[in-house]
Design goal:
Distance between the termini: 40 Å
CATH class of the largest domain: Mainly Alpha
Pfam families: SusD-like_3, SusD_RagB
Number of strands: 12
Protein name: Starch-binding protein
Largest sheet: 2 strands, antiparallel
Strand order of the largest sheet: 1-10
Keywords: Cell outer membrane, Membrane, Signal
Subcellular location: Cell outer membrane
Family: Belongs to the SusD family.
Radius of gyration: 25 Å
CATH topology of the largest domain: Serine Threonine Protein Phosphatase 5, Tetratricopeptide repeat
Length: about 625
């Protein structure tokens, strides 16, 4: 056993550039052996949960590149108090480097998880799963499938960040030579093929539904495995990895090119087929798009608010009640207080119970459609040029904008998802303890005297917009913060529909399933179908008729539907669109002004630092010294 521990430490040093760490977390002191860990069913189950441990740590959105580098939410960089790790948010300001990378998931440093260590845990489980004599055949097959999924997902997480990675198919034998230990990076195509092969092996032996929801919700199912397979294949087919000219010169030390030199259209076909199979499995398991069912204390609910609550609760509903939830992690989302504005005088008094620091840039608010279902800069009926002029809320808009409150025209006549996603000055905030339609809260954010306005540097929303979607409407911020917890989805059926629509468009163009599945999501959001909306209201009516035009529509649809869910950052990377999005200055409103005409003046907070090299993470310089067979990502 000492020899095994020694060789694992050597691998850790060579691959990760870090010291040997205890990772047999399930064994008590002085008995950290594989024989103990797999001596019976109970101990093996403990080790299975150790394989899940790193996955569960991924619940922390502030360490998720898809959340912190998407430009959807920004965080101040001048706080005197630091209630959370700011490493991820700081990357937008140009702090990334190769000497000490932020969100380092290769080594498990700087708010990153040690993913390679997690893969080795999975290998140990797979190598020893046959040892417990009291483990039933059915359980052994299921646990093996779960661990294969986890191993695949850990490889996938690294591949999204780093591109080509070393494939840790098995743990090295104690007789391995020094050269064998000095692993090199597999090609992009080899990396994705291996991930898919593990998912294919796992899926047949996973349950379609969780029968014991009290004890097993959060464990891997067949719908999860098939949905992630579709996402993996769509990622492999996307411009970042499919014939990307930016990385044609990236090669291993032996001269092997790590990225494919040419575009392969068949990759989209594989992704489309996988997405359709995942949809069939999910729907067969009873999943459907979520619709809000009002509790008994809400006796009257207008359609406009019902739609908002449907869209908001598609994320914040309890996972056992959410009909479209494919996958969520067990830990609950811990940042509702960062996404909630102060709505009451007691909230101001208890300001430190709710920092309200998650700020949404103006550009993200403007990404949402008009109520006609097209972009606001394309809508022939929308006064885009006059969008910052002042308008007062009236009776017709009272469930979206407070009656009699002055805000800007841009906040009127927008799609329901905008009102479900974003809290804004004058915007209705249904819930927070109030459900009486004649006495609802609204956000007041202008100047220091307003409840939600700037009070001090540590509780300041720097844009004047809040990610409302991340707050359960039943959570109450008044005399302290009483939170109704939820789990942030990793995958929803609406996202899977749009993934399939994207792949179908790349294969067959906009006719057929590309439009059909996009319209399923739009219909639930209260919008007309794509063709109807563009032909009737857009100044570019033929946009949905071409593959390029439909691609733009689906991309924006995914960004809107999955906003704030740690998905858009990954999408924008694989599409190679993040650089364009972040090239625009990050702007907010003139927070300290009280008069609407003065408050609603866009001000630039900062300009993001993001170039071609930032699409992939750098490998730490020290790792390249320890293992000379590793090569650095391009431009680092």
């Amino acid at each position: 056993m000492k020899k095994i521990s020694k060789i694992i430490c050597v691998i850790t040093v060579l691959l990760l550039g870090s010291g040997c760490k205890k990772y047999l977390d399930v064994a008590p002191d002085n008995t950290g052996t594989l024989e103990y860990a797999f001596r019976n069913r109970n101990e093996a189950e403990n080790y299975l949960f150790t394989c899940y441990a790193t996955l569960q740590q991924l619940y922390d959105a502030t360490a998720n590149p898809g959340f912190v580098t998407s430009g959807e939410i920004v965080y101040p960089n001048n706080l005197t108090k630091h209630p959370l790790d700011e490493t991820g948010f700081a990357l937008l300001r140009g702090t990334q480097n190769s000497s000490n990378p932020g969100l380092n998931f290769w080594d498990g440093e700087n708010h990153g998880q040690a993913i390679f260590r997690s893969i080795r845990r999975c290998n140990i489980m797979l190598e020893n799963i046959d040892k417990p004599a009291d483990l039933s055949t059915s359980e052994r097959k299921r646990w093996t499938a779960e661990v294969k999924f986890l191993k695949a997902y850990y490889h996938y997480y690294l591949a999204r960040m780093y591109g080509p990675i070393p494939l840790i198919k098995t743990n090295l034998d104690i007789t391995a030579s020094t050269e064998e230990i000095k692993v090199k990076r597999a090609t992009v195509d080899e990396t994705f093929a291996y991930i898919v092969s593990l998912l294919d092996e796992a899926a047949p032996d996973l349950p379609s539904v969780i029968s014991n929801q009290v004890q097993e919700l959060g464990r891997i199912t067949k719908p999860i495995a098939l949905s992630i397979k579709a996402e993996v294949l769509a990622t492999a087919a996307s411009p970042l990895f499919n014939g990307n000219p930016d990385y044609v010169s990236l090669k291993n030390k032996d001269g092997v090119a790590l990225f494919p030199a040419t575009y392969d259209a068949n990759k989209w076909k594989l992704a489309a087929d996988a997405a359709k199979a995942a949809i069939t499995e999910c729907e067969g398991a009873g999943m459907r798009l979520y619709n809000f069912i009002a509790p008994a204390n809400i006796t009257v609910l207008p359609d406009s608010l019902r739609k908002v609550l449907t869209l908001q609760n598609a994320v914040t509903e309890k996972w056992e009640l959410n009909t479209e939830l494919i996958w969520a992690l067990n830990p609950t989302f811990p940042f509702q207080g960062y996404a909630t504005p102060r709505l009451t005088q007691k909230g101001v008094v208890n300001i430190f119970s709710n920092p309200s620091l998650f700020a949404v840039p103006i550009a993200v608010q403007e990404m949402f459609y008009s109520d006609k279902g097209v972009p606001i800069n394309e809508d022939k009926t929308f006064d885009y040029a006059g969008r910052y002029s002042i308008k007062t809320g009236d009776n017709a808009s009272r469930f979206y904008v407070a009656n009699g409150y002055s805000t800007i025209k841009e906040h009127f006549n927008r799609e329901p998802r905008m009102y479900a996603n974003i809290g804004f000055d004058g915007g209705i905030w249904f819930g927070n303890g109030k459900v009486n339609l004649t006495d609802l809260y609204h956000v007041e954010a202008r100047g220091i005297e307003s409840f939600a306005g700037p009070k001090d540097i540590n509780t300041l929303n720097i844009t004047g917009y809040w990610p409302k979607k991340l707050v359960n409407y039943l959570s109450v911020y008044d005399d302290g913060f009483q939170e109704i917890s939820y789990r942030l989805p990793m995958m929803r059926l609406a996202g899977l529909y749009l993934l399939y629509a994207e792949c179908a468009n790349e294969v067959d163009g906009p006719a057929g399933d590309a439009t059909t599945y996009t319209d399923r999501v739009r219909t639930r959001a209260g919008l007309p179908g794509v063709v109807t909306a563009w032909s009737t209201y857009s100044n570019n009516p033929n946009k949905p008729a071409t593959k390029d035009g439909m691609r733009q529509i689906i991309h924006q649809e995914r960004r809107i539907e999955l906003c704030f869910e740690a998905q858009s950052g990954w999408d924008l990377r694989r599409w190679k669109e993040l650089q364009s999005v972040l090239s625009q200055p990050i702007q907010g409103w003139n927070l300290y002004e009280t008069q609407p005409a003065n408050y609603y003046q866009p001000r630039t907070l900062f300009t993001s630092v993001f170039g071609v090299r930032n699409y992939l993470w750098p490998i730490k310089d020290q790792d390249l010294i320890v293992n000379p067979n590793l090569v650095q990502n391009s431009y680092w």
